[in-house]
């Protein structure tokens, strides 16, 4: 039954099972779908000390419960009451929690929702409109945009890819220009950078930092 629910929702994530549909519930004064799920597996090594899990050195140690925003399902906001497996390492006597590509550690918004935010922000659309379309707060969208911006700026982009894809989007009021600029590798779709100002002289100054050979 749980596999049927996961497949129906299009969630195909290893070790993560949607175990129950809890129906409609009111969340923050809004009717939302609620599901229950569990994340568990046999860890190959300790996330704390790195020791291999031989001779049952790592044992299951209860669950950590969290509520994850899944995005819109059947045009309604949906949440997952997720039980994450906790583990105890006998070697270092530390505990750690199961991880999944579905959601980042210590986060309550699924990575799929974050990817949708990024795609929508690359269009000419305000953060407020993105928030309304995904049933999240504008502050959540702004925080995600900052996370994406910070992550790409920590990478050294000394080389431009052969093919670029770029767009502009309405940003916050605190930027100099009313529109921001985002560009990515059109082949891999990896975001390269997000610029707070898409005005011509700002873009020229930015791309002139790259060598002529890279720009040709």
Automatic annotation (TrEMBL):
Domain of life: Bacteria
All copies of domain Transposase IS204/IS1001/IS1096/IS1165 zinc-finger, residue ranges: 43-92
InterPro entries linked to this entry: Transpos_ISL3, Transposase_Znf
Record-given protein name: Transposase
Organism whose genome encodes this protein: Staphylococcus coagulans
């Amino acid at each position: 039954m749980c596999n049927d629910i996961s497949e129906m929702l299009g969630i195909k994530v290893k070790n993560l099972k949607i175990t129950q549909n809890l129906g409609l519930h009111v969340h923050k004064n809004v009717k939302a779908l609620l599901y229950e799920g569990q994340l568990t597996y046999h860890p190959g090594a300790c996330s704390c000390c790195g020791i291999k899990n031989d001779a049952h050195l790592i044992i299951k140690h209860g669950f950590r419960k969290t509520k994850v925003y899944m995005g819109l399902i059947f045009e309604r906001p949906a949440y997952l009451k997720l039980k994450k497996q906790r583990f105890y390492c006998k070697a270092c006597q530390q505990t750690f929690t199961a991880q999944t590509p579905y959601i980042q550690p210590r986060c309550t918004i699924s990575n799929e929702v974050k990817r949708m935010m990024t795609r929508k922000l690359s269009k000419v659309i305000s953060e407020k409109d993105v928030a309304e379309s995904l049933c999240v707060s504008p502050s959540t969208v702004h925080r995600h945009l900052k996370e994406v911006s910070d992550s790409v700026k920590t990478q050294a982009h000394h080389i431009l890819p052969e093919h670029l894809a770029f767009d502009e989007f309405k940003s916050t009021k605190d930027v100099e220009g009313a529109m921001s600029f985002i560009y990515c590798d059109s082949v891999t779709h990896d975001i390269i950078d997000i610029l707070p100002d898409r005005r011509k002289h700002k873009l020229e100054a930015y791309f002139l930092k790259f060598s002529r050979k890279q720009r040709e």
